[in-house]
Design goal:
By secondary structure, this protein is mainly α. It has helices spanning 16-30, 35-59, 62-67, 72-92, 103-112, 120-128, 133-158, 168-198, 200-225, 233-260, 265-275, 280-291, 295-321, 327-334.
Length: 349
């Protein structure tokens, strides 16, 4: 993770990929796919989602994940934040309808509360703040793995017909497009893992390009259906305010709650950054499967929350990096082990 983000100013991460996402949304607004082009884009998007989850499965080291289980209290804490506390707060957002959020935006707000945590950016921020980086790696990996199953199940349970109608056909699509490719990647990892490790940069472009295709397809469908007329500036302002409150609550809860649970400073940093964030890379393709034609409004809250969490967590991580150096870090450096990892902020998840 040696790549650094472009900063305008230094504390505000503005990654080129975020600009690409915004440009994709603008392109879909100006030139949405229609007719045959929409069918082609939809088919390509379905294939891209399957490819993404195959790559997720092929990259996840089962041995490393099992080794990380020894820090089970930390991982259970992160999983509880991601798949219990976040969903409860998402359900509470139902009280904002219809005064602050429309039912469609509230469904997207609830969906963002169901997706797994990030991996790359959680690790990067934990490293910058001199936290427990190995724990952040395992916590993010466990969250992503659990999200393959828990996010669709929670969406089916909590969103119901709002999520586009969860029928046997919908569940079959989830299994075929998400779970089967992921399991195939895990099964083939021993043969393709080395190739993937040698071509990380190229495959990173495949990841990002696939997600851009998913975004373009979803927002094109929204434009053709005319659903964007339902989103007024006031509604967008209300959505941003609700997300700011959500992020503030989770940041405070993960930090002070972890202290009450007896975790040390380094573990608390890992819990805060892994337990308060949501993965754009995992959430976008899941939304395309779960919501179908309604995916554009469903992913809007997640896209906005993703950029908000990056900006806020970048500030927090840099402030934590100026804290007095923990004794455990000094001991590691005195022993010649050097820093845990190269601090960098990436926004792909």
């Amino acid at each position: 993770m040696s790549r650094r983000t472009l900063a305008l100013p230094s504390w505000l991460p503005v990654d080129a990929y975020i600009l690409a996402l915004i440009g994709t949304v603008v392109l879909a607004a100006l030139l949405p796919a229609r007719g045959t082009a929409a069918d082609v884009a939809g088919g390509a998007s379905t294939g891209a989602v399957a490819l993404l989850f195959f790559l997720y499965g092929a990259r996840l080291s089962t041995a490393e994940a099992l080794d990380g289980l020894k820090h089970w209290r930390l991982h259970l804490t992160v999983l509880a934040c991601t798949f219990l506390i976040f969903p409860l707060l998402g359900l509470a957002s139902g009280g904002l309808v219809p005064y602050v959020l429309t039912p469609e935006l509230q469904a997207g707000f609830l969906f963002l509360c169901l997706v797994p945590s990030t991996i790359q950016s959680s690790i990067a921020f934990t490293s910058i703040a001199r936290g427990n980086v190995p724990a952040a790696i395992c916590a993010g990996s466990f969250s992503s793995l659990a999200g393959i199953l828990l996010t669709p199940l929670l969406a089916a349970l909590l969103l119901g017909s709002t999520g586009g109608g969860f029928s046997a056909d919908s569940l079959l699509k989830i299994v075929l497009q998400l779970l089967v490719p992921f399991l195939a990647g895990q099964f083939l990892r021993r043969w393709v893992g080395g190739f993937l490790a040698r071509h990380k940069k190229v495959l990173g472009l495949v990841d990002r390009g696939s997600i851009l295709l998913v975004v373009y397809t979803a927002f094109s469908e929204g434009m053709v259906a005319g659903i964007w007329h339902q989103v007024t500036p006031a509604r967008l302002g209300g959505l941003l305010a609700a997300e700011a409150v959500l992020l503030a609550v989770m940041l405070a809860l993960t930090w002070y709650g972890a202290r009450r649970l007896g975790f040390g400073r380094e573990d608390r940093i890992a819990i805060q950054f892994a337990g308060s964030k949501k993965s754009l890379a995992a959430g976008l393709p899941m939304a395309s499967v779960l919501f179908g034609a309604h995916a554009s409004l469903a992913v809007l809250p997640l896209m906005l929350f993703h950029q908000m969490q990056l900006m806020v967590c970048a500030v927090i991580a840099k402030r934590r990096s100026r804290d007095p150096e923990p004794e455990s870090v000094r001991n590691r450096e005195d022993a010649g082990s050097g820093p845990v990892s190269d601090p960098a902020v990436t926004v792909t998840s």
